[in-house]
Structures are given as structure tokens and as C-alpha cells.
Amino acid sequence: MKKTFLFLAGSAIMFASCGEKKAEEKAGQSQAQIDSTVNAQVAEKEAAMKAENDAKIAAAAKAQADSMEAAKAAAEKAAPAKGGSTKPHSTTKPATPAPPPPPPAPTTPKPNPRPGAH
To answer: What is the pTM of this model?
Structure first.
């Protein structure tokens, strides 16, 4: 009777331990599937954000280029009206550089008021 009981208990333990391993393997496989799905979604979001940012940067660069072209066209249009020449004229003479300041006068060391104390 003891042998039969021990045999049944051992069999039950073996069947229970085998079932848990398969559940762990299934959980590992499902975790791998979840990870791959999440990674794919993250890659999609990153690509969408990159495309959106690239479009914003391109629009800002185009706006700046257009404003620079408009400023250049306005400057070219205004230059002939002033006198027909596009070269800037300077009416003041360039200033001569100031001479460097004189070097400081040499100093002599001061005598020590308390001889022997350093």
C-alpha cells in the first residue's frame, strides 16, 4: 500500500512539473512575439516622426531662402534708384589706428618694513 501511494504521489509530481515548463516556454514565446510587435510599432512611430520633422525643417529652410531672395531683390531694385550704381560708396576716410600705449614705468622693490620677518 505504501509503495502504491508513493508511486502515485511521484507520478503526480512529475506530471505537474512537466506542465509548468511548457507554460513557461509558452510565456517566453508570447513575450518574444510581444517584443517584436512593440519594436515594429516603435519603428513605425519613429519613421513617422522623422518624416514630420524633415518636412518642418524643409518648410523652414524654404521660408528663409524665400525671404533672403526677396531681400536681395528689394536691395537690387532700390540700388539703381539711388544712383544707378550697386557699389557702396564710403564718404568717410578710414581712421588710422591709435598708437599703442607707452610701457609702464619700471618699479623698484619696496624696502621690508620689518626686517627678519618674512
So the answer is: 0.40
pLDDT digits (tens, 9 = 90+) for 21-51: 565 566 667 888 899 999 999 999 999 999 9
Distance between CA atoms of residues 30 and 4, nearest Å? 39
pLDDT, tens digit, 9 for 90 and up, residues 70-95:
999 998 888 765 555 556 666 676 67
**SS3 per-residue string spanning the chain:** CHHHHHHHHHHHHHHHHHHHHHHHHHHHHHHHHHHHHHHHHHHHHHHHHHHHHHHHHHHHHHHHHHHHHHHHHHHHHHHHHHCCCCCCCCCCCCCCCCCCCCCCCCCCCCCCCCCCCC
